[in-house]
Design goal:
By secondary structure, this protein is an alpha+beta fold. The protein folds into 2 domains: 58 residues, Leucyl/phenylalanyl-tRNA-protein transferase, N-terminal domain (Alpha-Beta Plaits, 2-Layer Sandwich); 171 residues, Leucyl/phenylalanyl-tRNA-protein transferase, C-terminal domain (Aminopeptidase, 3-Layer(aba) Sandwich). It is built from 7 helices and 12 strands. The protein has an 8-stranded mixed beta sheet, sandwiched between helices. A 4-stranded mixed beta sheet has the order 1-2-4-3, covered by helices on one side. A hairpin with an 8-residue loop joins strand 3 and strand 4. It is globular and about 55 Å long. The mean pLDDT is 93.
Length: 239
C-alpha cells in the first residue's frame, strides 16, 4: 500500500497540519520529516501531536483517533498497592534524575521495541534543559528502580515513557505524580496510545476531537508555580 504524506520542513518549522487530517490507516499518522528541534516538539505537543518511528525510518508524527488519558483526580490506587508501598523502602521524587530516567526508559526495553533512539534521547534532554521535560523517580534506598518522564503543556502532562526495575515501581510513580499534579492544578495526563497496561492502571479512551478541544483549553492555563520544582512526592515511611 502506498501512503502519501505531507513533509514537515526541517530547520525549526513549527507549522503542523490539522490533526483531523491524520490517516485512518495507519491510524493517526499525520506528517513526516522535521528534525526534532525543541521548537518543533513543543509545537507538536501543544497541538496533540507526537513523534513515533523506528530506527532507519523518517521522523513520523502522529495523532491517533482515540487517545489514552488519565484524569489525575480520578486515579485510585488499589489497597494492595497502598499496602505494598507502606511496607517497602521506596521513596518518590520529582525532577531529581531526569536524564537517568530518559536513559533507563530507553535501555530497559528490548532494542526492537523501543522508539527512544539516540536522537530522541538528545532532543528530550534538551527539553529538560529548557524546563519543558520532567520526570518522576522511584528509589529503593539510593537505587533508581522506576519512573516516568514527559512534557508540560499548561495543565496537561504529556507522558512519554515509564520503566520499572522492581515490583510496582512505575505504578507508584504514576500514583504519586497524580496526587501531586492534582494539588498543583494539573488536569490531564496524556498517554498517547492506549494499551492494556495503561487500561489496567485506569487510563480512559478519548476521541481525538474531544482531546483536541480539551487540550486547547488547558494548554494556556498554568499549573502552580512550584509544580515542577525538584521535590519529594512520597516516602513509604510516611504513607
Amino acid at each position: 500500500m502506498t501512503i502519501y504524506l505531507p513533509e514537515l520542513i526541517p530547520s525549526h518549522s513549527t507549522v503542523f497540519p490539522n490533526i483531523e487530517n491524520a490517516l485512518n490507516n495507519p491510524d493517526g499518522l499525520l506528517i513526516m520529516g522535521g528534525d526534532l528541534s525543541s521548537a518543533q516538539l513543543i509545537s507538536a505537543y501543544q497541538h496533540g501531536i507526537f513523534p513515533w518511528y523506528s530506527d532507519g525510518d523518517p521522523i513520523l508524527w502522529w495523532s491517533p483517533s482515540v487517545r489514552g488519558v488519565f484524569f489525575p483526580e480520578q486515579f485510585s490506587p488499589s489497597k494492595s498497592l497502598k499496602k505494598f508501598f507502606r511496607k517497602s523502602n521506596y521513596n518518590v521524587t520529582l525532577n531529581k534524575a531526569t536524564y537517568q530516567v530518559i536513559d533507563l526508559c530507553a535501555s530497559t526495553r528490548p532494542k526492537e521495541e523501543t522508539w527512544i533512539m539516540p536522537e530522541m534521547i538528545k532532543a528530550y534532554k534538551t527539553l529538560v534543559d529548557l524546563g519543558y521535560c520532567h520526570s518522576v523517580e522511584v528509589w529503593n534506598g539510593n537505587e533508581l528502580i522506576g519512573g516516568l518522564y514527559g512534557l508540560q503543556i499548561g495543565q496537561v502532562f504529556c507522558g512519554e515513557s515509564m520503566f520499572s526495575l522492581q515490583t510496582n515501581a512505575s505504578k507508584i510513580a504514576l500514583w504519586k505524580f497524580c496526587e501531586h499534579f492534582v494539588s498543583s492544578n494539573g488536569k490531564l495526563i496524556d498517554c498517547q496510545m492506549m494499551n492494556p497496561h495503561l487500561e489496567s492502571l485506569g487510563a480512559q479512551e478519548m476521541k481525538r476531537s474531544n482531546f483536541k478541544t480539551l487540550l486547547e483549553e488547558l494548554r494556556v492555563k498554568p499549573t502552580s508555580s512550584d509544580c515542577y520544582l525538584t521535590q519529594t512526592l512520597g516516602d513509604s515511611s510516611f504513607s
